Input
Amino acid sequence: MNDGSVYSHFQFTTHIGAMMDEDKFDGPTSNLFTHYNLFPRSIGQILHSFEVEELHLTFTQGRWQYDDWGYPLAPSAGTGVELWAWLNDDKQQTNANWKGLTNTLSGLFCASLNFIDDTISIEPKMSFRNEGLYNVHSAYDATNANSTSEKTPRKLRYGSLPHENVCTENLTPWIKLLPCKSKAGIASLLKSHKLFDSRFYSMAVHVRPVCEDELCRIKSLELIQTITAVFDVARRDGSYDWTLSGLFQRGITQACPLASTSDLIVHLPQTIEHPNQYELSPLPAQGVHTIGSGDDKQEIAVYDLKKVLGGEPFQLSLRWENSRPKSVRSISPGFTAHRYFTGFGQERGGLAIEIYNNNLEDTEAILLDTLPWYLKLFLHTFNVEVNGKPLENQKDIVKKMFYQQAVDRSRPAVLELALNLPAQSKIKFTVSFDKVFLKYTEHPPDANRGFDVGYAVVTVPLPRQQGQIGYGGLDHLRIYQERDASLVQGHGDGDADGKDKVRLYTETLLVSLPTPDFSMPYNVITLTCTVIALFFGSMFNLMMRNFVVEEPKKTTTTGKKKKTE
Amino acid sequence: MILLSVWFVVLLGLPFWWKTTRVYRAELPNEDIEQWNEWMTCQPTFPITINLHLTSSVDSIPASTGIKDGIEKRVQELNANHISKAKFPVKFVTDQAWSGSKEGDISDRPSAIPGTYDFYISPGSDTIATIKTHRQGFIQVESWDEDHIVGAVTEIFNAIFGTEQRVIQQLVHAADTRGAEKVKDQLKAVKYAPGYQLTFSLFSGDASNGVREWKIQEAINAYLTPVLKSMSVVSTFTVESQVQHYASLTFTPQLDTDQKEYYLTPNSLPNFINAAEWSLASTVTSLPSLNFLTYVPKPSESPLVIKSGPSSLRSKTNSFLIPRWGGITILNRDNDTIASPQVITEKELKPLMKVFLTQLRDLMGLTDLSAVKASFPIIFHKASNEVPTAWELDNLLRRRTAENLVDSLATLTSLARLVADTPNMVVLDHIQKDVVDALKDVERSCQRLSEQQYVEALTASRDALVKAETAFFDPTMVSMLYFPDEHKYAIYMPLFVPISVPLLMAVLRELKKHKESKKALAEKEEEEGDKEEDKAKKE
Output
């Protein structure tokens, strides 16, 4: 990384049903979902019973710094938990299935995913397109996979929890999904207290259907598990050198015998001017590969762990001359996006989203922003600025607009825009909102902290820059595998002109709503009661004694009064 | 007057206050539940019909009515010592004669009604009984007279149905007395559910032992499917399998240096399941699951056997059963002799499946009839592949129905008691409906039982159990449990105490005043009296 951090990315891919020919595959009732070998049963059962076709679940801690780090390998990088899934809608039970899915995953990963309920789940119309190639549940009755994917009713559900903390209890079930657990192979490096001691940490499970050949005759389900962590190497002693065992406090002693490939890839630093600033040891037997060309040139070292390991822990280290890099090439990401709140006070506020296009050409992009119902958006205040100047005709920038009005306590506000970003520009959207006074019980236990508002997502097509570290999309790593990357990309999310859709995540925000004093109800009850009681008591007494006071001259009564007093 | 009006308003307000702050509680049919617990409404009856077919090939036919009466008398004697309300009426029918005389002559039309059986009786050299897999039996008696026939039939009847009836008696009796005394067999068998999930798991201690896959699908199809099919009358099954690599034990097995083998003692078996690491629980289904584990130890710990000490005998099947949970088998593979170290073949799985089947029978509560003893030999025909016979299934049907009835009544009783004990608990209308429906189902089941419609009775009893449990575990029942009385006092206190003090004081004062005024009046009268006396004296 440019700032000397070490970026590590683990990726585990499991396929199920590779021999699932069309003739043998007899639909969802087939034995595919009954007998499990390497594919984890827990995931399979979930997919089966909730009719999930694609599942993407990401846990992230920390914020990915696009300006410094470029784009991450992992496709999702928004802080907190993000879950989105394509559900089969044959039986019109999508909502029930989605609810079941979130609850089950919540149990499986020990996370509060069950809080993704109707009030925060949305159905994006343009973002989060499906990545898989065919439809698992309908593949059996069709010959052409592409046509079925159009026909079968499918529904997208998306939900995120920006406030969720990721910790060991989420990692442990994640590791359990791996065939070799953390007992052998690359996963043996995963030690929670080192992983979570990092600047950025992200952990994901992706399930999608893929084709194994050009015509999609052989199909399989692909489970990709990724862990991404950015370590700050220089934090402790100022030295930018690193070793594998130093980073993870563990070593790899054996490759997972169940894995077909087990590679470790080092992206070498992109240095300029001083060619031999660093030393990598040991060098791989095949030497260093170069991928990409021109400015995007990137050198990588590939270690096949099946061959390298011989019982001894694998030692890998990178040393800089004088323990720090002299000059590295800077990364200038083509697109970045930021979002912040404007305004003050607890009554109203404003929201501003800025998108920078640093490229030399106009680009289409999609912006998706979800706001909880307790922020009431005013669409008439929606404004677009280009390079600081207000735009008269919004149609120039906003090609299409999809807006879902929030409904109190049942659904969030969704703003989805298809944009045309002019070259080298900064586009700013502003919109203002009112803050709602919540009910007493709707506040969280730490009410004065405020409410987290999830990120906005910008989907942009990015030219395939294979050399650049942090180039988005999972298919990047597939280049090194036997499977041809074009098989997936041809049908999947990539465009035909060699561009991949990359999602940029903006910052999550914290909004403080008007917060009541929580001991208030009881105080009010007590106070009111006391006042009423006082009033009643005095009135009552007054009325009772009036009788006595009005006739003071009667000797009998005064005598009596004296006696009573 | 003012005081009275204020008190009037307060007293008028009290019922309103009481009404508005009360939690909603639907009435539960407590009396009905009580009655059911005593089996007042309907007694659980398990009728059995037996058709006796006496051979007509012998000339001297004993009087069939005499035989019938004799048997009925003997069977009634057997059932004389009732301990519970359960009844077992037996009907013997001797109308049909039988033209055959040998076992082979029995017609191939078995009775399709559970609880109706055919016995074919003919004379022979000695007494032997054969119980076929369907609801048919053949009895050969050594001498062709009434006493012998009656004796043989009674003995067979007792052998087949005696244990079952005792178990049901105990069940129903335990429910009567609310004792926790469970029948021993029940501890092994899982609680009844309409469906079970069977999970077959292959646990491999280490990936280095080479095991990659197993042909479980084929093995299940070959050995398990027929059994599951025949048992679908009672419960349905879903089958799953999984493979887990790197499944380590929580402890190291002991080493027997003489035999060069590792062993597990029976004491260490409870710790065998590594519940924290082995993913056995299902994430989605709510059906109770039964686990069948095959454990392939890692090379450094194999062969792994089960025995109680270094020199004692090994367990023959190398497997054990965890009551109400499932079964575990340890599979030691000799990598030198087997053809494919990577794949566990169907042939290798065959003995394992046999063990699993036996374990499944135990877990489902099927009793093995062939263990019964009589004074003469009884031969039990067995279906291939351990498929339960019609006799065993009928037995299971009756027992499960009884269990369900007892369980659902127990649930309803505890629910009623819980509601009675927790005055703050909300009881919504649908709970009441569930309880009433459950009782109706219990009644339906009980009636079907007495009509000898066992399958319908089981279905009804299952519905009753499901409804009773839904009512018991309903989420709305829990919500108000933790609303303590202290809160109420804290909220009412500031209003009621300051208001009630002056009210009470005023009442007291008024009373005092009243008393004093009475006194004063009396004094006055006295004074007046005195005065009058004085006057009189003066006059």
Remarks:
- Residues 17-32, 134-150, 465-497, 557-565 of chain A have pLDDT under 50 and may be disordered.
- The first strand of chain A starts at residue 6 and ends at 20.
- Residues 6-332+463-510 of chain A form one domain.
- Chain A has twelve helices and 24 strands.
